[in-house]
Amino acid sequence: MKKFRLQNSGPYLVMAPGMIILLLFSIYPLIFLLKISFQDYSPISAVKPFVGLDNYVHLFQDRSFWNALRITAIFVASTVVLEFAIGLGLAIILNRLTVGQRIYQSILLLPIAMAPTVVGLMFRFMMNDQYGIMNYFMELFGMSRVAWLSNTSLALPALIFTDIWQWTPFMMIILLAGLKGIPDEPYEAANIDGASAWQAFRYVTIPQLSKIIYIALLLRTIDSLRIYDTIYMMTKGGPINVTSTLSWIVYDKGFKFLEFGYGAAICIILLIIVVSLLTFVLKKLDLFEVEDRP
Amino acid sequence: MSASKNNTVTVLQYIIVIIAMVFFIFPIVWMFLTSLKNQIDAFASTPQWIFLATLDNYRMILFERDFALYLLNSLYVSFLSTVLAIFLGSGIAYPFARYRLKGGKNVMTWILTLRIVPPIVSVLPIYLVFSQIGMLDSYTSLVLMYTFMNLPLAVWLLYGFFKDVPHEIEESALVDGCNRFTAFFRVIFPIIGPGLVSAGLLSFIFAWNEFLFANILSGPHVRTAPVGLNEYATPVSMLWGQIAAAGTLIIIPVAIITLILQRKMVRGLTMGAVKG
């Protein structure tokens, strides 16, 4: 079976241009980032002295950093859990229905594919306290108008709500594809064995779906960690700093306060978090089907 | 008894699904309606369901402001970076799918992790590098950036598609006198054509919607639509009618693409891991 044995450098030549771009854009920024994280680096000043670990020391004493870490954790945990729970529930229902499959599929794909900037502005409009339609609906149900995005205790829930609107369909679509792939036989067997609906769900659906669930949760966690566009459009990290996630403070420190060195230190910490999450799941990455088949 | 109970459950399920669908479609419909309203109707505290529709907002942003130009910029940048990502991505995916290359699995996993690292960590260095070589506010910087961002997706999707093509087809092409290149373009290429198209359309969506890098790399000369959208959201006043019109124009191409792709989107959204 050595038919496809490597005889020349052909394959390497073909992949070279793409690999060069990947390497340039991933390795170089990383080295640069690491370097300036030890510097007092401002793009407008000529001297960029090395300050050792100052940025990192500052980071651990900086309350805005700890705040951002907390906000990010709350945001990621609540969006992923809620989207998964609602998404799975709706996917199970959708899987049973026979009418209108194409229609609801088309509807569900729209939020996923929309630019988060547009989504952010749209929800900011709908959440306005004077003319926002969400407040109109709330009044209909006997609640009073609230300024969602300028209220310190409501701004983060409002962002989470927006994220749920956009990304629950993502969970639904993926889980639905998984549900459709489960054969009938295990259910029939469970039925014969006298399993209840809950037992069939717990011992047939969940195990059969586990790979898909894992992928959906992994991808959603990764993307939830990146949240930036909607924050930019809806709250700009405010009011005060209740919606300042890690992504947001990197942008804020860098482009508002021009503290690139400090921003870089935050990025390095963010990278460490992501990489440790990764090594935690790296074994599971073969979910993405890398085969060694020649 | 049980039949009528089943009916109730079915009706209940349809009701839940309909409520959910209304919830997911409503903000989009509302944005579209707002884009057709004049300023007074858009700012009414009681929603105006029936109003005199006007195309003023579209006329304003397209002909009196620069939104048409931003849309063209977006189109140009997204199209070019998509073509590059698919082209370069095939170059990477094909050898890994067909040859037993040393460390192939590691390289593929590394490419996957590039999709996982949050883009914010490269914002500062990318901005500094492009500003040092004087490439801020240029098409090239955005095209390169989006090509890089879409490459992992393209590689992984195409890798899956190439794997799906049986060896035998290629072998017989080689026996019939094709060389590697002609075999690729004459035999493999037509087979994975649909795959290439769906990978390309997905890359296009991501580039089209991208904001983080567009915001820091673009300037007055090269402004993409999502960045231009922000122009109507000034601290002084929010021109909601125009924002809604611009938003509608941004999502129209993407909506068309999703309608074309339908279930194929699932494969793309999961880096090829779930085949819809």
TrEMBL record, chain A:
Localization: Cell membrane
InterPro entries: MetI-like, MetI-like_sf
Transmembrane segments: 12-34, 71-94, 106-126, 260-282
SUPFAM superfamilies in the cross-refs: MalF N-terminal region-like, MetI-like
Main localization (coarse): membrane
This protein's record includes keyword Acyltransferase: no
BP GO annotations: transmembrane transport
Keywords: Cell membrane, Membrane, Transmembrane, Transmembrane helix, Transport
Source superkingdom: Bacteria
Gene Ontology, cellular component aspect: plasma membrane
Annotated membrane topology: Multi-pass membrane protein
All copies of domain ABC transmembrane type-1, residue ranges: 69-283
Family recorded in the similarity comment: Belongs to the binding-protein-dependent transport system permease family.
Identification of the protein by name: Binding-protein-dependent transport system inner membrane protein
TrEMBL record, chain B:
InterPro entries cross-referenced by the UniProt entry: BP-dep_ABC_trans_perm, MetI-like, MetI-like_sf
Any one of the GO CC terms: plasma membrane
Transmembrane segments: 12-33, 75-97, 109-130, 142-162, 183-208, 239-261
Record's keyword terms, sorted: Cell membrane, Membrane, Transmembrane, Transmembrane helix, Transport
Record's keyword annotation contains Transport: yes
Main location: membrane
Compartments in which it is found: Cell membrane
Membrane topology field: Multi-pass membrane protein
UniProt keyword Transport, yes or no: yes
Gene3D superfamilies to which the protein is assigned, alphabetical: MetI-like
One GO-annotated biological process of the protein: transmembrane transport
Database matches in Pfam families: BPD_transp_1 (PF00528)
Domain spans labelled ABC transmembrane type-1: 71-261
PANTHER family according to UniProt: INNER MEMBRANE ABC TRANSPORTER PERMEASE PROTEIN YCJP, MALTOSE TRANSPORT SYSTEM PERMEASE-RELATED
UniProt similarity note: Belongs to the binding-protein-dependent transport system permease family.
Protein name per Swiss-Prot or TrEMBL: Binding-protein-dependent transport system inner membrane protein
